[in-house]
Specification:
The protein has 312 residues and is mainly alpha-helical. Helices cover 75% and strands 5% of the residues. It contains ten helices and five strands, in the order ββααβαααββααααα. The strands form two sheets. A three-stranded mixed beta sheet has the order 3-2-5. Strands 1-4 form a two-stranded antiparallel ribbon.
Length: 312
């Protein structure tokens, strides 16, 4: 097969999720609805935390940035997906494709470490409550946030640098709805073993470090909860981390299923469903999980409404 270097390729073609016009219309309306809920939910969560002084705590500081990340990486993917579904244009420029990939990996990597920071926050709150304010200082919170974005940026930079070394064959058709690693690597006509290995090591390291932090934090939390004598005390302690644990389970479960496997095992059907859930659905679910199952957020919303009524 005739080979051409990626630098000569002006653009890619994203095939999207469906061929029939009717199915594209149904999916576009569904994704538009999900995206609107995502924007409203995450922006609403950020504003609510900013406006209510009682939510100015380390946990809600991290939750603000979780909402920002979810909103951002949904925005990186969904508008282009809607364009593909609603119009006949399936082209994305080479630079546009790699830019989408860069920001998506950056934000996903940052979310991994941010969720670990939130788990550590819950560990301190439950296992060392008397020193919570001292340990979870503003300085530490900002440092943990900075580390999350730095590690995400490192992962993303390594991914893009590795992908820039790939040589593509005559086909520029990506069998996916966004510029993800596996479907782009499948276009290569050169050996990608070393590139896949480097990407796998960095992605695996991100997951191992963040999952190890989560595991140690929640193991300590569970041990502390089991030592509590009263059932009401156990329930109260568990409720403080239940929503975060649910969000972590959904996020990491989909992430591991989608990415921790060789690109040769890439499957159009299963991976499309997992990717839709991971990129479009989860950013919508997080604000719902952290609001509907959280009394503090509900009470804050009521207080804001009461303030508005009082000002009128």
């Amino acid at each position: 097969m005739k080979t051409r270097n990626h630098t000569k390729m002006a653009d890619f073609i994203l095939l999207g999720l469906a061929d029939s016009k009717e199915m594209r219309l149904v999916l576009s309306m569904l994704f538009l609805l999900i995206y609107l809920i995502t924007v409203l939910g995450n922006v609403g969560m950020i504003l609510l935390i900013r406006l209510d002084a009682q939510l100015h705590t380390p946990m809600y500081f991290f939750l603000t940035h979780l909402s920002f990340i979810d909103l951002s990486y949904s925005t990186v993917i969904t508008p282009k997906t809607l364009e593909i579904l609603l119009t006949s244009s399936k082209h994305i420029s080479f630079i546009g494709c790699f830019t989408q990939m860069f920001f998506f990996v950056l934000l996903a990597g940052a979310e991994c470490f941010l969720l670990s920071s939130m788990a550590y926050d819950r560990y301190v709150a439950i296992c060392n409550p008397l020193h919570y304010q001292v340990v979870m200082s503003t300085r530490l919170c900002h440092a943990l946030l900075l580390v999350s974005y730095v590690f995400g940026a490192v992962d993303s930079t390594v991914n893009v640098l590795c992908m820039s070394q790939v040589q593509f064959c005559n086909s520029n058709v990506i069998h996916h709805f966004f510029c993800d690693l596996s479907p782009i690597l499948s276009l290569s006509c050169s050996d990608t073993h070393d590139i896949e290995l480097v990407i796998f090591i960095f992605a695996g390291s991100t997951l191992i470090v963040s999952l190890a932090t989560l595991f140690v934090s929640y193991a300590s939390i569970l041990s502390t909860i089991l030592k509590i004598n009263s059932s009401s005390g156990k329930q109260k302690a568990f409720s403080t981390c239940a929503t975060h644990l649910l969000g972590v389970t959904i996020f990491y479960g989909t992430l591991i299923f989608t990415y921790l496997k060789p690109s040769k095992s890439y499957s159009l059907g299963k991976d499309h469903v997992a990717s839709v859930f991971y990129t479009i659905v989860i950013p919508m679910l997080n604000p719902l999980i952290y609001s509907l199952r959280n009394k503090e957020v509900k009470n804050a919303f009521i207080r804001i409404l009461q303030m508005k009524e009082g000002s009128r």
